Amino acid sequence: MYLELDGNGPLHGQLTRALKAAMFSGGVYAGTRLPPTRALARELGVSRNTVLAAYEQLRAEGFLESRVGSGSYVMPPLQTAVAQPASGPVEPQSAYARRARELLDHDWLLGPRQPLPRYAFHYGMPSTNPALTSAWARELSRAAQYTPPNYPTAQGLPALREAVCDYLARRRGVHIVPDDVLIVGGTQQAMALTARVLLDEGDEVAMEDPQYTAIRTVLKVHGARVVPVPVDAQGMCVDALPARRPQLVCVTPSHQFPMGSVLSLSRRLALLDYARRHDCWIFEDDYDGEFRYDSKPLAALRSLDGDNRVVYIGTFSKTLFPSIRLGYMVVPPQLRGDFVAAKWLDDFGAPTVEQAALAGFMADGGFERHLARTAKTLKERRTALLEGLRRLAGDRVEIADSSAGMHLVAWLRGRSREQGDAFIAHARERGLWLASISQYYIEPPDRAGLLLGYATLSVAEIEQAVALFARCLDEMPAQAQ
Fold it and tell me: Which is nearest to 423 in space by CA: 348, 379, 480?
């Protein structure tokens, strides 16, 4: 019997797969007696235990029958189970899948991630340090020992919801009770749950332009019609909101993404009044409001909401690390049951061990000590980036004013969007990773802009990266394009 092991995983698993393939291909017919385990082990050059394990697995799955004193026989019928290869790609099987195919690159989602070069102004990854890693390991170990192994509660661990309430009252001016909090798997899931609870296909959603692409994609795949609303130095232009009632308004008031502006008090009040008059909801994404460098963190829009119109979102992906996959929602009381039901239907609830570890980390002050260290580090890196750009790039770039977060926006003077893309390609060839800001626009302007994330680079690396950036500007001057 010819069997080809694929080399992936334990030998008994490889042998199990090889035997199944032989059965399905017709190389081994139903009713065939398989070789004795010792004989097959000698033929393949593996241990008898490996063959025994493979035979036992096949018996458990119903592929083999053991006959005392006779051996192991292939069970009939097998040919009906042969899978026919697909002749080609199939059409999307639902409207949701069709929209997802149109908006998402499957090759990017399913393929391996290419490593970034050493100098990468990459947005999305936060600043981490050894102290956080050690503290988190201790909390996880403790939580794993004392957390019950049963399913999580859909709304979230009570201890974590209490810690979130305490934190929001002191840091963001939001005074709530634990029943108002829903623990979720980050901002992305929060948006998906909001779409399920509040939106039907075809509903309009007013959204800042520019805005975070992933949230916009969730809405469009869900079937919402996104209406762009311009942004200026005071945040969303509330007077440009549609006259016709949208079902939802999405906003980043504490630190507009990506431009960095703060929604002014007058506009916050105007937005809340708009929601009240139009009987619509507000999705407040407070993705990195903890990090401000010219003042204390601002009170959230939710703190001014007297009508329970605001669905407030916070995430630990930026304050800790994205792989934790934990965030929280403050949901209006009248929608609490709908949101908890949507969370239960999605995944039953967030992982309990990680929730318990985070609750302990917040309760003993470790979380806010980490925030203080991180804010100091980010301020140093932001200062290094700003000083480097002003010294080496000069008036060739225009920096958008922002005193918070983990990124800056820089416009390349005298370059169109197309010329900016050519400059980015040139910089990447030289080992400097840059990203265009145009990807975040629904209606992008015809000027070249960059989103410069600085959280993952040290001060020394930022200085070297800015020097390389300036050399790229010298090599590809605006007037030569």
Answer: 480
